[in-house]
Amino acid sequence: MEMEIERKYDSGPFGDETTNYLVGTSAKIVGDFIKLVLDNFKNEWGEVCIRQNRAPFDKMCVCAYNRGKIIRKADNYEAYANARIRSIRANGGWGSMGYDIEIDDFDSLPKQTSENFQMVYFGRVISKK
Questions:
Q1: What is the pLDDT of residues 26-70, one digit of tens each?
Q2: 15: which residues sit within 8 A by CB, 6+ positions away?
Q3: E strands of the chain, at which residues?
Q4: Hey, where are the domains in the chain?
Q5: What one-character-per-residue DSSP string does 50-76 give?
Q6: Model-level pTM greater than 0.90?
Q7: What are the angstrom distances between the C-alpha of 2 and each of 5, 26, 32, 76, 122?
Q8: Rg for the chain (alpha carbons), in Å?
Q9: Measuring CA to CA, how many Å separate 114 from each of 12, 30, 57, 70, 71?
Q10: Residue 42: φ, ψ to 5°
Q11: How many Cβ atoms sit within 10 Å of the Cβ of residue 37?
Q12: Helix count (H) and strand count (E) of the chain?
C-alpha cells in the first residue's frame, strides 16, 4: 500500500503570506512522514519538528530539507524518526513549509540541546544558553 500525504487549509493567509494547514497522512512514524514530504514536495524547503501539545518551547527539530533532500539532521535523528505520530500541522508559503508533529510519547525521547536545535533549524547557532 502506497503511503499518502494531504495538506488541508486551516487558516490564513497571514501578513507574511503564510497559511496554516492540517496534515493528513497514512504515515505512522515521523521518518515515514519525512520520506513522504521529500518524495511529494520536491520544490519545497523547510523543517520538520516534533512539538509537545503545541507548547512554544517544547519543540525539537528533526531535520531541515530542501528540494527533496535532507540538508541537516538532529543529533538524535534516528530516535526522533521512530516516534509515533499523533497529529501534524504545517505552516508555510512561497515554497517554504514547516511541519510540527505531535507524537504519542514526547517525554521518552532524548532531549535536544538548544545549540543542536538552532543548527538543524537555522543552519547555525544564534545564541547559547
A1: 999 999 999 999 999 999 999 999 988 766 667 899 999 999 999
A2: none
A3: 5-11, 19-25, 45-51, 59-66, 69-73, 85-93, 96-103
A4: 6-122
A5: EESTT-SS-EEEEEEEETTEEEEE-TT
A6: yes
A7: 10, 9, 11, 27, 32
A8: 14
A9: 30, 21, 10, 20, 19
A10: -70, -15
A11: 23
A12: 3, 7
* 31's grid cell: 521518518
Cell triple for 100:
510540527
Tell me which amino acid residue 48 is. V
Amino acid of residue 12:
G
Q: Is 49 exposed, middle or buried (0-12, 13-18, 19+ CB in 10 A)?
A: buried
**Cell 508555510 belongs to residue:** 92
